[in-house]
Amino acid sequence: MSFNVWISRIRTLDIQAKIVLILIAVIFPLSIMIGLIQSKVMEPILSDEIRQLGVSFSQNLSNQIQSQKLLTKPNPSVAIEDMIQRMMYTQPSVLRVDVITQKPKSEKLFFLASNVEEQELIEPPIIKLKEEMEGEVTNEEGIPVWSIYYPVKQGIEKANIHVLVSLRFASSVTGTFLRITLIGALVSTILLILILNFFLRRAFENEKQLKVAQMSNEVLSEKLQEIQQELIHKEKLAVMGQLTASFAHEIGTPLNAISGHVQLLEMDLGKVHAERIGIISGQLKKIEEIVKGFLQTTKKPIVQQKIIITTRELIERIVVLVMPTLQKHQISFGQEFEAKDDQVEVVPLEIEQVLLNLINNAIDSMKSVDGNKNVHHALWVRTYNSPGSVTIELQDTGSGITNENLKQIFKPFFTTKMLGEGHGLGLSICQQIIRSYGGEIIVESKMNRGTKMKVQLPVGKKT
User: Fold this and answer.
1) Bridge partner list, 153
2) Which CATH architecture best describes the domain 235-458?
3) C-beta of residue 276 within 8 angstroms of C-beta of residue 264
């Protein structure tokens, strides 16, 4: 079949089949090439290891011959051959060992000992004893071997240990490695093709659905505004479960403040009745407003009344509420109003909700530090101006927030508190409220050093 026919058939395939062919044509040959390169790299390393094995064998034999002074003894051949046989049992890669020496007053060499029988009938492979260790790769009866000569000297007596070490193990290892690489390349290519087919199929299905959705959007473009409004209302209904948990969380905070003041009222009975009862009345009114706001989420959105108010006034309202809790936990409090232009146009209840939530989180963080009653904690609130905005900064001496948690603290339902102590919606709601005014909440924290929460709001128009 001609090349052009193959090309035309490939062009008729769908994109999924083309990608599979590309994988087969690229990844499999590439894997084979990598396997060949790795085997070629491994081969000299293994060869050098085998050479080192032969050198070590020769060195050990040389040390034993010298320690027992066998070269100076009469008829040492039997002792050396026994020594060679024992050592070869532990080194199966060693094929042959010879001890070559020189006859007295003669330059003729002969085999003093060998693991090969009738070796004395064969001439030694060298004509002169080696003065230093030498080694080279040769073939012995078709088998690649390391031929190593190791010098031995004892007084005036000299000899060479000749060792042949088989390289068959290295060839076997590289061959096995290459076969494993080829099988691995084939298996990995097949697995990759199957996985890619699965994801490609899903991607194509999603793409088809996306095209259908785009066509539907084009058809309904004239009713887009009405649909968007309905979607907003449906989304609000969809998060009713979240708002229920938020409602329970938010209603609990004022009730805690009421509880604290009621306890103080009981302690101070007969001293400041009017002031304490006024605070309780204000908190009950706030609970009523929160309930109303919660019920409004199931209705069409309504515009809440914004007013111009100073951040100082907002902070002072909240300080009155949290002061009993701060005193109860022996937390020092300080405030500093540096902002010269601190008027903001907001719904006061929403900003108070944000500040109250952040302060309560700070108190919880300070309460959790090691449980050590001797640790002195403090909460500091200050305001200052940035270009076009005013910042309310709350700094505590609590346990701090880890870098990992800092990335998630504004996610709905994320909380580091124990089960039943929080729902993980407070900071998420705070962020939504502040962003609705064009502001932002910035968090800076160090473990065991405390946390700094910065609430930035645009400066309102002066009246």
Assistant:
1) 158
2) 2-Layer Sandwich (3.30)
3) yes
Distance CA 4, CA 240 (A): 64
Length of the chain: 463
Please write the tens of the pLDDT for every residue from 179-214: 777 787 777 777 877 777 777 778 778 888 888 888
Helix axes 426-436, 240-267, angle to 10 degrees: 100
> Tokens at residue 108, please?
């003729």
410 phi, psi to nearest 5 deg: -95, 0
Residues 315, 383: Cα–Cα separation, whole Å? 10
Q: pLDDT band for position 225 (50/70/90)? A: low
Q: Cβ distance 315 to 457 under 8 Å?
A: no
H/E run at residue 391: strand 389-396
Domain ranges of the chain: 7-172, 235-458
pTM: 0.40
Beta bridge partners of 166: 145
Furthest-apart CA atoms within the chain: distance in Å: 130
- pLDDT tops 90 at residue 384: yes
At residue 241, the pLDDT reads 45
Q: How far apart are CA 53 and CA 44, in angstroms?
A: 14
Helix H segments across 220-239? Answer: 224-238
290/299 Cα distance (integer angstroms)? 15
Q: Which residues on adjacent β-strands are paired with residue 332?
A: 378
At 109, give phi and psi (nearest 5°). -95, 150
Superfamily of chain region 7-172: PAS domain (3.30.450.20)
DSSP secondary structure letters along 85-127: HHHHHT-TTEEEEEEEEE-TT---EEEEEESSTTGGGS--S-S
